[in-house]
Write a structure and sequence with these properties.
CATH class: Mainly Beta
Number of domains: 1
Structural class: alpha+beta
Strand content: 5-15%
CATH superfamily: q2cbj1_9rhob like domain
Number of helices: 9
Helix content: 10-25%
Largest sheet: 8 strands, mixed
Shape: globular
Mean pLDDT: 93
Length: 326
């Protein structure tokens, strides 16, 4: 059914999913049962914000770490409301829910700047006292910098997303390349850290991110969805509570999973580049937002400040190779 703009404006975001399928279909019910029984990384270790050494150790071992309670109640509610506004604006452009990362799956990079740093809510994620010490410890320096802040969300009815890495060696700008072929980006220290903030609890059935531990340095081919063993499909970061953060080495294999719940799963992010790693900066932060940041936050974002007024809107890009990113 095609919604009028008025209906979409009034529809709760949790009711925007399940276009073209039914949550009660037999195959959906069977998958929901299978995920309920099997999903989740056994013995998932979760760090507290003050456990910096533990968080760093888990990150370097697995290529990711979950840290709980990094957003307080007020910050979480503020971010949830900002996500809801952006979700509605993006989905309004896609009545059939084709998504820009696969069916019912979207990136907040649908913003025309590729970032959400034109909003105070996303800018808040840049220098959180619960996260900044961990990022500083991961890079062993406070001289890292911000690439952008965006993230993704999946509506009820989303499906599996192929496992992928968010970065690879290439000859163009933006990543490491050794013309001799002797050294890969995977042989180096972590170049990019992505912090995905949980807006809802990650459960077995609402599309938790799956992470394959220890793959950040792997040169093995990433399996296709058809080749992927069940244990990888069930290697999801759950249970984990809203207000926490999933901190990822973006080289590690990861992917989206089916959201068979009755609510949207959103994970806004902030992406940080190591002091030695650089990518072309895109002006995405108005000066008015920049001036509200802490001194450290301004140092991280100085290359992103827009010299001219930003034309910020959203566009839906058809899924393609980039559609494998989360």
């Amino acid at each position: 059914m095609q919604e009028s703009e008025e209906i979409l404006d009034d529809t709760p975001i949790d009711a925007l999913g399940w276009r073209g399928s039914s949550p009660d279909a037999p195959e959906i019910a069977a998958l929901r049962t299978r995920l309920s029984e099997n999903n989740g990384i056994a013995g998932l270790e979760i760090a507290a914000p003050n456990q910096i050494d533990r968080a760093v150790g888990l990150f370097r071992r697995d290529g990711f770490v979950v840290v709980e309670n990094v957003l307080n109640g007020s910050q979480l509610r503020t971010m949830q409301a900002a996500c809801a506004t952006a979700i509605r604006d993006i989905v309004r452009l896609d009545r059939e829910r084709q998504g820009n990362r696969g069916s019912h799956r979207y990136s907040f990079s649908a913003s025309t700047t590729g970032s959400m740093l034109h909003t105070p809510e996303w800018a808040m994620l840049i220098d959180l006292p619960t996260v900044t010490p961990i990022i500083t410890a991961l890079f062993e320096s406070a001289d890292y910098h911000v690439r952008k802040a965006a993230g993704d969300f999946c509506l009820p009815g989303s499906e599996y997303q192929h496992l992928h890495s968010d970065i690879a060696d290439r000859q163009k700008f933006g990543s490491f390349y050794d013309p001799s072929g002797r050294i890969s980006l995977r042989d180096l220290p972590c170049p990019v850290v992505c912090c995905n903030f949980l807006m809802v609890d990650f459960t077995t059935t609402n599309g938790p991110t799956r992470q394959i531990p220890g793959t950040q340095n792997s040169r093995q081919p990433i399996p296709t969805l058809a080749e992927e063993p069940d244990w990888m499909k069930y290697s999801t970061v759950c249970p984990a509570k809203a207000g926490g953060v999933l901190i990822r080495d973006i080289r590690a294999w990861h992917g989206g999973t089916p959201n068979l719940s009755d609510h949207v799963r959103a994970i806004p992010n902030a992406i940080f580049l190591a002091p030695w790693f650089h990518e072309p900066a895109v002006e995405s932060m108005p000066l008015s937002i920049f001036e509200t940041l802490s001194e450290h936050g301004q140092k991280l974002c100085k290359q992103l400040v827009a010299r001219e007024p930003l034309d910020v809107s959203y566009r839906i890009v058809s899924p393609g190779p980039a559609g494998k990113k989360s």
